[in-house]
Specification:
Blueprint lengths: L8 E3 L14 E3 L10 H19 L3 H10 L7 H12 L1 H11 L11 H16 L4 H15 L4 H14 L4 H11 L1
Antiparallel strand pairs: 1-2
């Protein structure tokens, strides 16, 4: 769900409250905390949390996933596991696809971690699952809109659109995977 300035209204400052910069105003906005997400969207968000943590800490995503699997308080959906392990197992190929879909002056390391890992998950879904391309891209853009920078949605939309247009031949990909087993 896109957020627009029309969704905001100006609010008076509370007693003793000062604007952070001259001319700034206080606005209300939509609270996304109560927003309902599908089980698959929740699984994608959980996978993003795992991949982001692993990226931030410079560790294998399986280690971050294992922490959650070992915690009896946390429920880890099967789709979360599939995404995390799929991104991990196909990391080189996925990162090569990202590099091929962005301008040379914008290396993958320069991307915000959230965007980088959303792109990785979406490209994994595009190349290695039966999820419809528009659904994989839409889910990534929705999470980017909710969790990342203002420019992220447009950037990821372009990147993932190019990646979807240049998808590898699925039958060749499946034969290669079968031969590796």
């Amino acid at each position: 769900m896109a957020h627009s300035p029309a969704d905001e209204r100006s609010l008076p400052l509370a007693a003793g409250e000062h604007p952070p910069v001259p001319g700034a105003i206080k606005v209300s906005s939509t609270d996304m905390a109560e927003r309902h997400h599908s089980a698959r969207t929740k699984a994608r968000k959980a996978a993003l949390d795992v991949l982001f943590e692993a990226d931030l800490l410079g560790r294998d995503p399986f280690a971050s996933l294992a922490d959650r699997l070992d915690d009896p308080e946390q429920i880890v959906r099967a789709f979360t596991r599939e995404l995390v392990l799929g991104v991990r197992d196909n990391a080189e190929q996925i990162d090569a696809r990202i590099r091929a879909s962005v301008p040379k002056q914008w290396p993958i390391e320069r991307m915000p971690r959230i965007d980088r890992n959303l792109a990785r998950m979406a490209i994994y879904e595009l190349d290695h699952t039966d999820v419809d391309a528009s659904a994989a891209i839409s889910e990534a853009l929705e999470l980017a809109d909710e969790l990342s920078t203002d420019e992220s949605v447009a950037f990821l939309n372009g990147l993932l659109g190019r990646a979807a247009q240049s998808r590898p031949d699925r039958s060749r990909l499946e034969r290669t995977t079968d031969e590796q087993r």
